[in-house]
Structures are given as C-alpha cells and as structure tokens.
Amino acid sequence: MTTTYTFEETSKTLETPEGNLHYHDVGEGPVLLCLHGSGPGVSGWANFRENLGAFTKQFRCLLLDMPGFGGSDDVKGQLW
C-alpha cells in the first residue's frame, strides 16, 4: 500500500525568538530528522517527499527547512 502525503497536511511552524522554523511532521515511531543541503529551491519537502512512503513505515519523519530556506525565516546576522 502506498501512502501519499500532502504539503498542507504535514506542514507545521515552530515560533522561536529568532524567527519561525518550518517543518513537516509525518509518521509514527522513533524520530528521523531529515536535513536538506543548500542550493536554489531546496527545502525539506523538496528533498525528501518522495522517500516518505518508505521512511514512515518505521519512523516519525521531521523534514526541517533550515533558516533562510523553504518556509523558514531567514535569520539575519547568524552563521549556520
């Protein structure tokens, strides 16, 4: 059985004093944190959505948009 997840149903935002962090939360079980690389148009969703069907069979997947990427706020003056 193939499970399809949508951007909207998995999208979440964490408010921090430095700005908002956007991420996707999918599945149940031990946490698998997925961190994307850098480059034009990258985000947790863009890099990992095609793998969610396999990963969520065993894990709760958190696909983080690093600061300044995807739906996360850019943090001015910070080095990441």
Number of helices: 3
State the shape.
globular
Helix content: 10-25%
Question: Biggest β-sheet, characterized?
Answer: 4 strands, mixed
Oligomer state of the chains in this structure: single chain
Describe the structure concisely for a colleague.
The protein is an alpha+beta fold and 80 residues long. The protein contains 3 helices and 4 strands. It is globular, with a radius of gyration of 13 Å.
Report what the structure shows.
A 4-stranded mixed beta sheet has the order 1-2-4-3. The longest helix has 5 residues, at 44-48. 16% of the residues lie in helices and 31% in strands. With 80 residues, it is α+β, with helices and mostly antiparallel strands. The model has no long low-confidence stretch (mean pLDDT 92).
How are the SSEs ordered, and which strands pair?
Blueprint: H1 7-10, E1 11-16, E2 19-27, E3 31-35, H2 44-48, H3 52-55, E4 60-64
Parallel strand pairs: 3-4
Antiparallel strand pairs: 1-2, 2-4
